[in-house]
Specification:
Glyas_Fos-R_dOase_dom; VOC_core; 30% strand; alpha+beta; VOC family protein; Glyas_Bleomycin-R_OHBP_Dase; 3 helices
Length: 129
């Protein structure tokens, strides 16, 4: 395999709020942080990474299942968590906007939808086995 790591790079107008939300509230461990006269960057660990590519019909279906209507743009970030209901509450308390409460999906997971800092639409999913 040629690729060793998938890194999603997000430009956040409110850098400090975004770092607090994703690092402190969501719990992504900080791997590295760099400061220069030109700016700052923080690299957070997010466990195993995958790239999910969906055609427009599947994207419509996912939004319909999770939210009830088409709401996502062409990028949506999904995080697997141990308890999607609890993490959804924690992240809305930390400033995320709730789009949809957790719902059981046809693929047997419990998914919620939020909008986080930097305008990222987030799916939190819990595998139900």
């Amino acid at each position: 395999m040629k690729v060793r790591e998938l890194r999603l790079v997000v430009t956040a107008e409110d850098y400090d709020a975004a770092v607090r939300f994703y690092r402190d509230s969501l719990g992504l461990p900080e791997r590295e942080a760099y400061n220069s006269p030109d700016g700052r960057v923080t690299i957070l660990e997010a466990g195993r990474a995958t790239l999910e590519i969906a055609d427009p019909n599947q994207a419509d279906f996912i939004d319909e299942v999770e939210v009830g209507r088409r709401v996502a743009g062409h990028i949506r970030v999904a995080f697997e968590v141990g308890d999607s209901a609890a993490v959804t509450r924690e992240l809305t308390d930390a400033g995320a906007t709730l789009i949809a409460e957790p719902v059981r999906t046809p693929w047997n997971s419990l998914n919620s939808r939020l909008e986080g800092p930097a305008g990222l639409q987030l799916t939190l999913f819990e595998e139900l086995d």
